[in-house]
Amino acid sequence: MQLHTVRGGRKAMRTMPTIQKPFIIFLIVLLALPGVFSSDETAEAAGGSTASVEVSIDNPGFESGDLTGWTVTGATYAALVKNSSGDAHTGNHAFNYWYDAHGYELRLSQTIGGLEDGTYELRAWASGENGAADLRLFAETKDAGGSPSVQSTAIVNTGWNNWTQYIVRNIEVAGGEITFGFDVAAPADYWGYFDDIKLVKVVQGQPFDPNEFIKGVDISTLQALEDIGVKYYEGGVEKDLLEILKNHGVNYVRLRVWNDPVQADGYNDKAHTVAMAQRVKAAGMKLLVDFHYSDFWADPGQQVKPAAWQSYSFADLKQAVYDYTAEVLSELEAVNAYPDMVQVGNEINSGMLLPDGSTSRFDNLAELLKQGIQAVRDTTPANHETQIMLHLAEGGSNGKFRSFFDQIRAHGVDYDIIGLSYYPYWHGTFQDLKSNLDDLVARYGKQVVVVETAYAYTYENGDNHGNIVNRSETDIAGFPATVENQKLVIETVFNTVANVRDHQGLGVFYWEPAWLPGVGWKSGEGNAWENQAMFDYNGNALDSLNVFQFMPGSITDALPILVYPADKITVSKGAVPVLPSTVKVLYNEGSILQKSVTWDSIAEAQLQTPGTFTVYGTIAGMQQQAKIDITVLAQENMVKNGGFESSDLSYWKLSGTSAAGKVEKNAANAHSGSHAFNYWYGSPYAYKLTQAINDLPNGTYALKAWASGGGGETVLKLFAEDSGGLIRSVDMVNRGWNNWMQYFIEDIEVKDGKLTIGIEVEAPADIWGYFDDIELVLTSEDPTAPTDPTNPTNPANPGNGGGAASASRPGEGKSELVKSEPASGQATIKPEQITIDGSGAGLVTVAQDVNKIILTEEAVAFLGKRPLELTNGSLSLNIPAEVLQQLIESSEASGYEIALQIAAVEQKDLEAALKRGALQDESVTIKLLGQAYDFKLSMLTGEGTEKELKSFRSPVTIRIKLEEARNIKQTGIFYVSDKGKLEFAGGHWADGELSAPVHHFSKYAVLEFTKRFADVPDTFWGHEAVSGLALRQIVAGMPNGSFEPDRSVSRAEFAVMLSRALKLEQGGATNVFTDVSQDAWYYPSLSGAYKAGLVQGRDGRTYEPDAPVTRQEMAVMLTKAYALRGGVMGTPEAAESFADAVQIADWAQASVNTAHALGLIQGRGQGEFAPAAYLTRAEASQIIYKLVTK
């Protein structure tokens, strides 16, 4: 394998040496000899190589079609050779293991004798189910004295056809014989494959030198810290930071360089970098220079061109990259500080120098990278070795690295090292990192380095600026913030890299271990990183700094360092939880294995006491205990076999396409326990899974269920149906495998002890999913119902103080018409005139000539917590019980009545008000549809006073039937002020009615509102969305009558649009962002959005309101807005729907996938999302229109 290390010579070094013809003939003859290419050559981290001579073994790829040469012991019934090229790594066959009835263990092995003594490596490929199994590739030998020795490496499957190569290294053969193969211990239904086993004898070339292992730091903030007087101490003695670092084992320093960092007071520019580089070299350490090609921070979320390059053509931009790189490096050479490694771009997941160098334009990106790389090659001094790195974030995401570096390889980009950022609380597990590192080495033949990592040692804040890493982040990683754990976590990163195959893990850089309070992300700001430094806030070196004493090979045993808590379980009161048989254990070289656990016993009293308790477990051979949290619900689960742990559909009925559903036994696919209901079918299908429950105590219930799946169902509903046929349901949305979401239906009333619950599914072919842990619990029980009293001949009128009424109970059918009292237009409502419908609402229907409704105190008491549903001709009002209670609480008087005024507004009065508002012009048309009303809700006390309710805690719903609605998408219910001001209340159209929630009463009218924009014709693709938002007063357009649909929407504009769409309270937060004036037109909306948690800014203190919003920034804000509207949210594992998913920043991944699954966003063509592209005003309108109409 070619080493791409630069070894001097500048441009002249690329001149090919003269090769004599006799030597060429010799090479041809040599290459023709058999066996010459039975060896593998692998680059070593220290610049050496090892030749690996392959040993012949029997049937290594199982291409004989059987187990010739192999021996299976144990569960032989679970072993076979699969004849399917789709399941093989290469060829047509692979070894397959699987059994469905129960767990199983087996060993697949082969013994070879007559070997030369020496060092060997065993290599094999594996793929299989991502679940809880203990799989190992092993090699067993005997030493010279005959004592057995077993070496192994753990196999961690990640899914079907996700082939990964595993290696057992440094196998010492002394007696000429070796037994090798696989050990499998798996639960029922677990499956996997092995293929392409290879045994090689290692012939050492230049030995690996552990002293060359990189133990580096990024200390780019040091000069700014020193300039404000920050000091560093070792053992209480003040010393130069570089001296302290070197004393503790640091041998490499990374420095970032920005083009024109005005926001950082010039620090990290070329001059500062050159000065700092001289100090690094003088201290005897190696140097890595990190080119951001930006004036400020460059990362997956922002790759902004330097201001001086903004107007460059692409040709000029390429030349600028070359010139700037060469300029900085030449100045470093001039002071004898030329770097030993150069990083071309920083965390370039989305590309660099956007938009020109976006990964959506990979041809451009490759050209820019080549220019930077060429500048390094052309300026490298003679007899100097400089390696070139390409760097991505999200070091645990193998898919993203493969997608990016496959493109790099396809475009012929020449580089040496793959750099990864890996922060354990952001970038996946150590196993994710380990698997990715090994795969990158095998796939691309490149060396790898973790170029950024860090961990917190305290939760205390060193300044008044919040920190990035707090308890929630360390909870994800599994290690509380202490000095000891900081050292342990980083040591594990070191050891994981040191154990990369073939010594191709070069080392690790810790990001900013000396960044103490006083210097922030930008000039004038606080520090959000100081609790991840390796010095306390007074500058004293912490013990964790000793992690840099690490040496590869110094940790000889793979030891457990963390037992991950098992997934929590929720059970009903009295139910016995099914605890998992294994837990995940993290080892000090990055592996995560499933280990059997024996749980402590659970006391019966614990299962009878609502709340949460912890059960601990013992793992054989470990001091660390396993633990699991169990939550006991207060009420019994009335669903039988709700977790499907009976292994079948006992108590359930599956109707429709019954072949689509089954109970699957697989703990990895279950929400809890080991079973879940699974559905899939190869053709379009529809089914219902139901359970009829009888003998329920009458009362109010809540139905809950957990769901996960791939998504794509046309119907996916959880429902409850009572004996009268009333159905309550909630839509469910699946967002990925093991993305479990719980769905609820509350306030289900049971009156006769009967309820049918279930799930309804309709889907196209190949759509799949799971249900688990379905519960029905009683939330409030009805009191024992008294026998109906006999109607008296002359019942007393409770409204006139005549004592208790003994009228018959209200019915459950249609309410009877209540007429107005003579010559008053008023109707007084008593309890016997209220009908309770199936949904629990109190129905009252009054004659159309009624314009004032009086609710007696007894009527309000009868309604209790039920809403009032009032109908008056074509008008209906739904008034929540909270609103009536709000009126009652506003007065301490007794003997009250509640008055609701419904006054018809004459058309001429409304038209006069609209004219005063001067809203109509050549671009705006307003048409009144139907009757307008003036509403008033007040309390009448016994003392004769009236108190009006001005605003409502919960919205009152207005519904108006329309006889004519030609353009319903441009029609809504509006509040109309006396001055003609309009306020859009809502416009949901269903069953011939238009409805809207309102938070105050006044004049309301149904208006058809049409606003036309000169540049948004009817044929424009976003016309409906733009017009719909204009109706809703979310957008207004430009003063010149245009909308500018193709212009980028600014961050301020998008925040205002979302704030208006959600009808957020304006203002409420002061001094939110340092770059936002309270006089700005958008300030009230932006302040309200900040208060609601909708926006946070780019670095905690600035918002950059005039900057264009990117599509991935949009997705994050959009999903927050969806949640604020009460939508059901979920966090997927990855955004796989788009061809450029690898370019989506880690912080935006879940939001993009969620918004796409909900149908709120779509790509920009060719299957791409274009995350770093700017959002246009038309796109923003389309997205928000979907949000408000969903």
TrEMBL record:
State any GO BP term from the record.
Answer: pectin catabolic process
One GO term in the molecular function aspect is: glucosidase activity
Organism superkingdom: Bacteria
Its signal peptide is none
Q: Which reaction does it catalyse?
A: The enzyme specifically hydrolyzes (1->4)-beta-D-galactosidic linkages in type I arabinogalactans
What's the family?
Belongs to the glycosyl hydrolase 53 family.
PANTHER family membership? ARABINOGALACTAN ENDO-BETA-1,4-GALACTANASE A, ENDO-BETA-1,4-GALACTANASE
Q: What is this protein called?
A: Arabinogalactan endo-beta-1,4-galactanase
Q: Which organism is it from?
A: Paenibacillus woosongensis
Q: What is the lineage of its organism?
A: Bacteria, Bacillati, Bacillota, Bacilli, Bacillales
